[in-house]
Amino acid sequence: MAAETTVRILPCGAMTTDITWLLLAPGRAMRTRQTKDQPAEWIDCPTHCVLVDTPDGRMLWDTSCPRDWEQRWAPTGLQDFFPYDHVSEEEYLDSRLRQLDLSPGDLDYVVFSHLHFDHAGNAQLFKDTKARLVCSDKEKEFAFGFDGPFTGAHLKADYEGLDFETVSGDAEFLPGVTLLEAPGHTPGTMSMQVELADSGTMIFTSDAIYMGDSYGPPATPAAIVNDLGAWYSSVEKIRGIAEKTDATVVFGHDAAQLRSMRLAPQGYYT
Ligand SMILES: [Zn+2]
Question: Which residues pair with 53 in a beta bridge?
């Protein structure tokens, strides 16, 4: 067990996509009459997981996209909107764990910010391991509650047959690790706040806030939002906590920010 809490950001390559999905911003996603003939920008939509070692256990935050994304996502059609095609062999989650001398059986907890296909894509790696799988009660209710194999970016093949424990509200999950309710993107999206001895507070927003341009201020929403009013409230909730704690806010899918962070396997935060 770790003597002190350590955070490792595992970069897992990128999907590529039309920026309009991520940022409904005039001038970026929406064209003017002068630029109406230009195609919308396609950007890297990077995906990462976070490994948190605490004195009370080792947890993984999110599981990124699966190696078989093209087949698995085919029923949804989303493989053509979000191809996971900027990824190299060493960037897949299982490779990242191996680089840290870990296998899925070494995790005590796998906590899911939400169960979208680019966050729960490797959940099945942890089937029949000792890892306890955790998501919010509202996310579980939604993800298992609809009819058919998928809705939006929730794909039951990712998480069916797995047992999820749930948390509710804002909860200190491990010492210094608090799960924050941040709905809007999905009904049960969570962010994670970690208190570190040297680095202070870090908040991993996941998809509650896609990128710095989404955070603003002003907050700028995205094309995939389950509840827009709740989304705005969650952004301002996170902003309030971040200002009070002088936190480093790490966004869910921000390519430029991710490049600026200390990244695993070499980099880490204490
Ligand atoms: Zn999402």
Answer: 6, 58
